[in-house]
Every structure is written in structure tokens, then in C-alpha cells.
Design brief:
Distance between the termini: 32 Å
Shape: globular
Largest sheet: 4 strands, mixed
Strand order of the largest sheet: 7-6-9-8
CATH class: Mainly Alpha
Number of strands: 9
Oligomer: single chain
């Protein structure tokens, strides 16, 4: 989700996540030093979650792998991967760059060095009430998930000029990012985020300048909304995926991919310039973000300390009955779309 001065970490991002001033805030403990400590712990734990959770991203990779098997796209992909790598196995590479997989490999260290803002590549912070993703709109940036996906596609198609590849990505880096970010752009809270007023209401900022002051706060992809014992973002990253897999009666991403592919995917047709597809998908995901926020009620604001000792605001939210089931079904749909579309992009690049 977006541009800000070096922040504190967001649940799906590693590096600094926006500093308190720059929008993110979380919770309190007066009456509850104990409660605040408990919430602080759960929030801290949520920061190690991968977007969609590793199983979600691996499911996307596994679907695409099945779809391109035996085709030209598969042969081109194999040229960029190591012999022991698959689209499923490299699907969390972009999160490993944040240190989520242990110490960084030489390849990851080089990528991080060249891309100091790589944590911002995973999201865009459009108000969930928005009708569509708009270039230059509130919450967007040149480093958001839509722009980086567009760049990855251009690089894989052979672009070498600075305008098309401002971050100097190699073809391999572009593929590794593409596989992960295609999943991210289908995660509802990686596209549509909640903005909350000082009165504790969901609002749509009139402009980017209206955010990050004392009146309107960006919840950072709903990392600052607390649902049950974790951030709402973490719920969608992990719990929703786990529930979807359990309902399908599967245990592994490969099994989940096979299950999801049994039915014809609900995929609105997208044609034309492949580099423009990510923006269209982000707009579609805003529809999913509206469903993810439907019926949510802000209960109370609290304060919490981040790992730097700064205070930030968080808001507890309650959800309507059946919310978890709705999230599970929507997650299955979004993961399926992401897998089929990853394959479609690869086919379009190497047709």
C-alpha cells in the first residue's frame, strides 16, 4: 500500500512501515496494560505473516504451473528458474526479501540493495469505497503493486529503457516479483484500505493531503484494525486461506490448486495491452475489498507501541455473523483468479 517516509513495518511488509506520523497507528493500554500487552503481542506476531500466507501464494503458483505445462511460456519460465525451482516454490521470494525466510541469500541481498523500497511493491492504499484504481489517485504511488507489476511485465517482454524499467530489474527478478505480486493484487486488503476519521468513522479522504494529519488516518491495509485477536489484515492473509483449505478438505497448496481448478474460474475477460491488466485487476479487487469491509463496525480506538517504542492508534472492529465464511469463499475465488491470470500473463508475454 504506499509512499511515506520510512515507516514502521506493516504486516505484509518487512522494512520500515510508515512512521506514526505518516498514517499508521495502533493501540492503547491504560485500563489494560495487560490488554495492551496482549494486543501488542498479537500485532507483533502478525508482522511475520506473508501476504495471503505462504500457502496462498504457493497455490497461485501451482495453478499457473499446471496451466502453462507443455506450452512456450513454460519453456521460457524454465530458462529463468533454477533446476530445483518451480512457480510454486518461488512464489514467496518477494517476501523472503523482507527477511521472512531467514537470512538473505546473495541474490536477495543484491535485490534489496538495488530496491530499498521493495516493501512498498506489494500493495496500494486506495480507499476501499473507491470505484476504481486510478493513476495518481489517493493511496497510489509509482512503487505500488500496480506499477511494479506493469514494470515486471514490460521487462519480461524485453523492455530495457529506464522509463519502462526504472528499478533496473533483471528478467529473473521480474519473474520472481510477478509471481508473488500477481497474488498480492488479488488480496482485497492489498488494494483497498480503510481510512478512519478522528471521530472513529470510515471515510474517504478528499485528497492525499488530507491524510496523515490528526483528522484522518490510513489503517495501512487494515493492519491497524483489530479483529478478534489479530489485525484484520493478518486475518485475511492467513486465517481466510486456512479456512478455505479446510473447507476444501486439502492440506497442501498443490492439492488446493487441483481442487480450485475443478470448476470453471469466474474470470471476467481482459484483453488488449497486457501491461494494462494489473490496473484493471486492482479495480476489480476493490470490489472484493468492499465485501471484506461490508458490515464492519468500528468499536473503539486504542493506542499501542510499535517495536520502535512509538505510539500508534488502532481500532477494534466487529464483524457480522458469517464473516469468516464469506472471507473463506472470497479468498478461494481470488486465489483462483490470481493463478489463472498469472498463467495468462506468462502466455501473453511469451505467446
Amino acid at each position: 500500500m504506499t509512499v511515506r517516509p520510512e515507516p514502521e513495518e506493516r504486516s505484509d511488509n518487512p522494512v520500515p512501515r510508515r512512521s506514526v506520523k505518516r498514517v499508521q497507528t495502533r493501540r492503547n493500554g491504560a485500563l489494560s496494560r495487560a490488554l495492551a500487552g496482549f494486543v501488542g503481542l498479537s500485532l507483533l506476531l502478525s508482522t511475520v505473516a506473508h501476504a495471503w500466507g505462504a500457502p496462498g501464494h504457493e497455490t497461485v503458483g501451482a495453478i499457473a504451473e499446471r496451466l502453462i505445462a507443455g506450452r512456450r511460456a513454460e519453456a521460457q519460465v524454465r530458462k529463468l528458474l533454477q533446476p530445483d525451482e518451480t512457480l510454486q516454490s518461488i512464489s514467496i521470494w518477494a517476501d523472503c526479501a523482507k527477511g521472512y525466510c531467514g537470512s538473505l541469500t546473495e541474490e536477495l541481498r543484491e535485490f534489496v540493495h538495488k530496491n530499498p523500497r521493495h516493501a512498498h511493491y506489494h500493495y496500494t492504499d486506495v480507499p476501499f469505497q473507491a470505484a476504481a484504481y486510478e493513476e495518481g489517485g489517493i493511496g497510489t504511488s509509482d512503487d505500488d503493486v500496480v506499477h511494479i507489476l506493469k514494470q515486471c511485465i514490460a521487462v519480461l517482454k524485453g523492455a530495457t529503457d529506464h522509463d519502462a524499467n526504472p528499478h533496473g530489474l533483471t528478467a529473473r527478478e521480474a519473474l520472481l516479483l510477478l509471481v508473488h505480486l500477481l497474488g498480492d493484487v488479488h488480496q482485497p486488503l492489498h488494494v483497498g484500505t480503510a481510512y478512519v476519521s478522528d471521530k472513529g468513522e470510515f471515510v474517504v479522504p478528499a485528497s492525499a493531503a488530507a491524510v496523515d494529519n490528526v483528522l484522518i488516518f490510513n489503517t495501512a491495509g487494515d493492519n491497524d484494525l483489530i479483529f478478534e485477536s489479530q489485525s484484520l489484515h493478518a486475518f485475511w492473509d492467513s486465517r481466510a486461506v486456512e479456512d478455505a483449505m479446510r473447507h476444501a478438505g486439502v492440506r497442501t497448496p498443490a492439492e488446493f490448486a487441483a481442487f480450485l481448478m475443478r470448476a470453471a474460474p469466474d474470470l471476467p475477460i481482459v484483453t488488449g495491452d497486457v501491461t494494462k491488466w494489473p490496473a484493471k485487476w486492482a479495480s476489480e479487487t476493490l470490489g472484493a475489498a468492499k465485501l471484506a469491509h461490508a458490515g464492519l463496525s468500528l468499536e473503539k480506538r486504542e493506542a499501542a507501541e510499535n517495536r520502535s517504542g512509538e505510539t500508534r492508534r488502532v481500532w477494534r472492529v466487529s464483524a457480522p455473523s458469517g464473516y469468516a465464511q464469506t472471507a473463506s469463499a472470497l479468498t478461494a475465488t481470488q486465489l483462483t483468479r490470481a493463478g489463472y491470470r498469472l498463467a495468462a500473463v506468462l502466455e501473453a508475454v511469451w505467446h
